[in-house]
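pinned: reference chain
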Amino acid sequence: MTNINDLFFDGHYKDIWRAIIPAQLTDREIRFMLEYFDLKPGDEVLDMMCGYGRHSLALAEKGIRVTAVDNLLEYITEIRDKALASNLPVFPLLANIIDYHPTGRYKLAICMGNSLNFFDAGNTAKLLQYWAEALAPGSHLLINSWSLAEIVIPQFVERSEAEQGDLKIISHSKYLFHPTRVETETQMIDTVGGIETKTAIDYIFSVNEIELLLKEAGFLLREVYSIPGRKKFTLGEPRAYIVATRQ
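pinned: its structure tokens
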């Protein structure tokens, strides 16, 4: 399987994520993780699809030992350089996510930034099983998504435009079935007329479907938040934080 992340995060696009995700959001997510999961210095966290390490590095600054896994070499190299420069307990690992079977016993596993929605139901079930095996009973899994059916359906638009710095970004989306997914073709047009076009697929699951997948892998769904730890998720909110416990 070719992970859509391989196609989607080159050229301009990998830098857009840094611009559109505010630092305040990462700060709130980190504070939630530390308090809700009672993380202490020396605890082990598994960060799957870690991207450029916004959570891995921030947790490590608090003394948390983080295994940071991604399939993009540029991200892993960047995390490794920053961890070495600041002597942080981050252990970056380049891996094809769908084939990576983590070992050890982590207190918390996280998959943030809508990353789990890159995978269809079969591969999602496989990933959840792998992660369950790396967590001791009573440990937790945190998933961040903005592609739940309860988010996408009320807000779905076929065409959108935005500007980010010197780039004009035009997206065309289709809501498809069998499997349920949104396919989005995005054009990034720079000031001299250069165009980069990418296609992304987000697989769409309802909260109920996610709960069944979690249960099959040995997890119990605890709660779904829209604001982590503070506000329970309701229909149409822009993002969801799914908390599950390893049974």
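why pinned: The first helix runs from residue 4 to 8. Residues 4-149+204-246 form a domain with the Rossmann fold fold (CATH 3.40.50.150).
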